[in-house]
């Protein structure tokens, strides 16, 4: 496979040369061996192992400093984490709305399942968690927009939003019952896709470590 599209590649050299970030454009062709990976979810986004051999990169293609590639990536990770947190809130809200409609239309024992107390309480719990996550993301986003760099709060928002998003997806699937397990309703796909958020851009465990260390522990 030849990589021709414009992109950025973070890489380690095969010798003692440290990490670097490379700006990839159409003038720089790199041959790579690709192995596509099969995943639980996010099937619309390809993931693959890439192996590069005998690649020579001109100085003009290096972004920042050689040896600082990891630090460049880590700086940008905060933005990725905040964007991920916002996406989790949006995804959870979409599933909530979709399931609320279903609960008002699906009947059991002569009335919509949303009229049963147990179902009402499920929606109340989900709504509270979603709104809490939304306010965390909004408050943190406001600080970033105003020039702050709140790593602790970004980590908190990412940790909490990704956790509640999966909790909401799981509860929505439960409310759908057997239908939620069927591809026809789309809930099972959301359940599979949204699970990645507790891993990508920093696992729950990494977020907890960042938060804990921010208190000097």
Q: What keywords describe this structure?
A:
217 residues, alpha+beta, 3-stranded antiparallel beta sheet, flat, disordered N terminus
What is the fold's blueprint, element by element?
Elements: E1 2-3, E2 7-11, E3 20-24, E4 30-36, E5 48-52, E6 62-63, H1 69-105, E7 107-108, E8 111-112, H2 117-145, H3 151-176, H4 187-194, H5 204-213
Antiparallel strand pairs: 1-4, 2-3, 3-6, 4-5, 7-8
Helix pairs in contact: 1-2, 1-3, 2-3, 3-4, 3-5
A few lines on this structure:
With 217 residues, the chain is of the alpha+beta class. It is built from 5 helices and 8 strands, in the order E-E-E-E-E-E-H-E-E-H-H-H-H.
Descriptive notes:
The chain has helices at 69-105, 117-145, 151-176, 187-194, 204-213; strands at residues 2-3, 7-11, 20-24, 30-36, 48-52, 62-63, 107-108, 111-112. It is of the alpha+beta class and 217 residues long. A 3-stranded antiparallel sheet has the order 1-4-5, with no helix packed on it. A hairpin with a 2-residue loop joins strand 7 (107-108) and strand 8. The model is unreliable at 1-6 (pLDDT under 50).
